[in-house]
Amino acid sequence: MNLGEKLKLRRKKSGFTQEQVAQEMNITRQTLSHWEVGKNYPDIDSIISLSQIYNLSLDELLLGKIHFKGESVMSKKLSVEEIKTWITTHYPEAINVKELTGGLASQTYLFEQGKQHFIFQVGNLKGFEKEKFIDHELAKTLPVRHVVEIHETDDKLAYSIYEFIEGDKLFDLNSQQLLDIVPAVLHTLETLESIEVFNDKEGYGYFDGTGNASYPTWIDFIKAVYNNDIYDWSSLEEKGLDSDVVKNAIQELKTHISCIKTNKKNIVHGDVGSYNLLAKNDQITGIIDWSLALYGDHLYDKANLLFWNEEKLQPLIKEVKNKYISSNETKEVIYCYMLRIGLEEIYNTVILNEVGYDIEWVANRLNEIVKNRG
């Protein structure tokens, strides 16, 4: 993938049109178009401006390691004035409306009314419903956001209002703060894995807003990624990805899947990382965005941390390896989970055209995981 293709991908994943970016940079749309098709390339100042507009670091913009995930690209970016209108519909005295860093599939704002602070987020209705379920079930056990209300407009735009949680995302912490927060994150993971899944809820794998999941067993969920009736990989190459990446990972998963003997039913966050954990004073104050939550083996969350291997979280990842990869058996289980996570990401991004990490990075990471095991 050349630079122009990457710039085009970053813009689309951020939900901007060429006209919007050109206007923000005070350049012509044709100039931006020439960059994206590779006729010529932006200078360093323009690259910095693009990284700021797309809310990405230079590494993320140029190298493709984008630490955002979501279920679908927002079809429409709402203006601040539109957001303010929606907020004041419910909170007429709202003040100090301020945009926060959001995901690829959402817009997130902070506002005040009286002495209280709230979060207003536009995004995915199913994700909001899952977060409301988690709030109802786990608020006494984990620092989850309280969902005040959820709405959907006539044109199917969904938004949710949450009580504000004090704290910074781990991504925004400095190196020393990231070291200091490791014990608190490990404690949070321990708390998460200790929770017994609600007896009245069915299934394994991704659950819905009612708390029910569709797979009869945990192993069925893991195997589903190579079940042609559920995951149809047939259009992979015509969509531009080398199918060997997927074939090799699937073969590895089939070869080693017998190591997964557990049928545990833990709550799995599904996307634990630097953007979904909030911290203050060396404590975890919030676990947010439960849209990818599922029922299954708690090691799946640890495998998720290891798969994405965020540079920011290396001190945490080191401790997770020391604590949880305690035997060859556990190592093999986590290896299988990492394969499944990579395959899922490729399927959602390439086959289903959902928004996700840069697929070039994901494919290379999956190859690296297979290679390093051998």
Automatic annotation (TrEMBL):
InterPro entries cross-referenced by the UniProt entry: Aminoglycoside_PTrfase, Cro/C1-type_HTH, Kinase-like_dom_sf, Lambda_DNA-bd_dom_sf
Keywords linked to the UniProt accession: DNA-binding
Domain HTH cro/C1-type: residue ranges: 7-61
Protein's name in the database: Phosphotransferase
Natural source organism: Sporosarcina highlanderae
